[in-house]
User: What shape does this take?
Amino acid sequence: MDNKPRILLVEDEPGIADTVQYVLNSDGFAPVWCSTAADALRQFSLQPPALVILDVGLPDLNGFELFKRLQALPGGARVPMLFLTARSDEIDRVVGLELGADDYIAKPFSPRELVARVRTILRRVAQVSAAQAIAASSAAPPASPFVIDRDRHQIRYYGRALDLSRYEFGLLRLLVQRPGRVFTRDELLELVWDNASDSLDRTVDAHVKTLRAKLKAVAPLVEPIRTLRGTGYALNEDLPAAP
Assistant: This one.
């Protein structure tokens, strides 16, 4: 039985795809190449991979849009994804990271560096998953309006299921498990994001902003997340039992 980590490579340039597949194979991975977004969606649906390497410039769909569609598939929110693109503008990098991507590498690139980043992401995913599994064994306080369902990768707030991205889920779950505990932005990047060194402080702020909007849609008068200016974020300890 082949236990090699399956890597979904979505790249429309055959020359680049051949090189990436070769180095991935050489390093113990099982790459699956797709040249279009449609094929990538089909392959992902058949079997979610360990990681996706995703080109932004695809012939049939923008890579950022494909990223969102892959995340919406069953199991998609738990699969790390790395953007591979010819565009090196900071705005593209920020967009990719704020969407929830795990890394961003611009062409031309070193194939060995790409494989090193893949290994780093997968190692961080394993470490964070193990740490979160241990932390999740401690349920939220009985009076908490939050209920964490690890099997469904879901959090309910005052009885309503929240529609969360992978990083929003990880961020909120961490705060819920330690109400009152102040987490700095660096700690949140390290504990929730898979490649903290390449992520930005404003990435955390952007995710907290979207989280607050989703929580406020359920309970407009409740402020569950506190901001400590210049420090970080914490979950309020004294949340009402009803909104």
About this structure: Helices lie at 14-26, 37-46, 63-72, 90-99, 111-136, 166-177, 185-192, 201-218.
